[in-house]
Amino acid sequence: MSQNHPYRSLQLPGDAPFELKPSPGKGWGAFATRRINRGATILRERPLFVVRKSNEQITEEDVRTAFQHLPPSAKQQFSHLRDNACVPFTHMTEAFAENSFAISNSVGPQASISPVHGLFLLHSRFNHSCIPNSKIPNTNNEIIASFATRDIMAGEEITFCYNTDFECRNRHERHQALRFICDCKACLPGTPFQQLSDMRRTFIRGLQYLTLGKDLNGQKQGSVSPIIVDPKLKKAAEDFSIPLSSRLFYNLLVMYLLEEEGLLDDFMAERLHPSILNIKALFITERNARIATLAMAQETWLEKFCMALRLYGRADVADHAVAEGLRKLQGLSVEQ
Ligand SMILES: C[S@@+](CC[C@H](N)C(=O)[O-])C[C@H]1O[C@@H](n2cnc3c(N)ncnc32)[C@H](O)[C@@H]1O
């Protein structure tokens, strides 16, 4: 049956390092046909068409109009996207939502004002994993590209993570967002890895709360917080009066937990590393600055964290100014 499946008609680039084939329990998926080295490009893809609206605003009419403007061959390609292994699509908006990606709009007078969504025939064949082996970073044009975040062996399924904040979400929360049951290593119930994974991701969310002063949705948690249970600590986080020393080892601990979870890819490291270096550069008290420098000179994230723990409970001359600066940035009154 899979021989005459419509996906067989989807055209892959000649040099694509993957093939499309059934993925048990997930419909079809993309599988490496040769080794793909960490960092290598897997696929660059143009959208079949775009809709210049946010997800919630896209109507049946928008998708139908865009579809009607397509040449016959592109129309045919779109019609190959049957049901994505879930319930058959009854609306064009469903087919669009299941096969589209938000893309940047950095060109022209409307740059970054209006959201744009593109229909991508091939990237939307990739299945999800909470510990993926590829990533599709944001770009500043309509072409999207996927990269291997670790070495991928021939025969291995290529996956990416469908949501951006899953490193802070436990299994239950991830499945609610996905609306399907993922069976990756972090989701297989009853395994020690899965239990540790939930602990790590909850811990990462708490550490982020402590350093950013707010939760994933940008909001403060209610007075009974399931994340930060100590009211004094919660208030200190929300007032940005967490001392520099704690900020350093909270951030280093996040890096270590991400690494243990298999999520510290080069993109993630590149995004998070600069803010840790900034924290290190802010220490004024000489002994603290020395320990922070020594910590950052260690080889591994665990070693950096352990060295930074020597700062535990130590105030720094810069603490007050850092807290004031952060409050100013957030538009809060400066004196607390
Ligand atoms: C964008 S499509 C991915 C390609 C799809 N498997 C297909 O056959 O066209 C997303 C759908 O694939 C399935 N899927 C993706 N990742 C999955 C996973 N980890 N576990 C189970 N189903 C998955 C779900 O039905 C989801 O709604």
UniProtKB/TrEMBL annotation:
Gene3D superfamilies associated with the record: SET domain (2.170.270.10)
Protein source organism: Zopfia rhizophila CBS 207.26
SUPFAM superfamilies from the UniProt entry: SET domain
Record-given protein name: SET domain-containing protein
Pfam families: SET
InterPro entries per record: SET_dom, SET_dom_sf, SET_domain_protein
Signal peptide: none
PANTHER family in alphabetical order: SET DOMAIN-CONTAINING PROTEIN 5
